[in-house]
Amino acid sequence: MTDAAPTYQALPLPDRADFDDAQMLEKAGQFYAHMRARHTIRDFSDRPVPKQVIEACVLAAGTAPSGANQQPWHFVAIRDPAMKAKVRAAAEEEEQRFYDGGGGDAWLKALEPIGTDASKPHLDIAPWLIVVFAQRWGERDGARVKHYYVPESVGIATGVLITALHTAGLSVLTHTPNPMKFLNGLCDRPDNEKPIMILAVGHPAENATVPAVAKQKKPLARVLTTFEGES
């Protein structure tokens, strides 16, 4: 952020939910059902998506909490076919090195059930690519300002963005070629920003598939530990 240093000021909570226990459980269940219908795909339709939808979803991402409220993220949305082709070409070059052995045997073995390879046609076909950048530092009054909890903050915002896109009826594929420094040049972003992810965004193709293993989610007992104390 580049504005003047803010000072602390307490405001009354502007929004408040007041659900009883049954309503909370119902809404939590509805949200779980909604998110269970989210699928990562690699087969996109070229059906256009209005820019206004992307903008609304990015606005939602911007509501995410962040360390010291520094909001250390920047999103670059790409619809231009020529620019998407450049992203694909550069990403596939890095991916080819990875699949030729750069990723290591264990990593490549772990990816086998997902069915991926170095070819990334979705980067051309999906109507939008959203590149997520993490701002390692910012500026205020001409001076460098360190950002705190950057990976955590950007990760939360990206999760909100993916959820917003799903809620809008769109499918998303997360893509992380390594290294990704080429994205700074293509997207004209400064050196204080680190590209961390490409999101391919659009509608699924008629013949879209998902890997069977992707539907195998860990049960609650494996992802939750509770300490309830005495009632």
From TrEMBL:
Highest taxon of source: Bacteria
Record key words, sorted: Flavoprotein, FMN, Oxidoreductase
Q: Keyword Flavoprotein on this protein?
A: yes
User: Which terms does the record give in the GO molecular function aspect?
Assistant: oxidoreductase activity
Which SUPFAM superfamilies does this chain map to? FMN-dependent nitroreductase-like
**Pfam families per UniProt:** Nitroreductase
Q: Where is the Nitroreductase domain?
A: 36-203
Tell me the InterPro entries matching this sequence: Nitroreductase, Nitroreductase-like, Nitroreductase/BluB
This chain belongs to the protein called Nitroreductase family protein
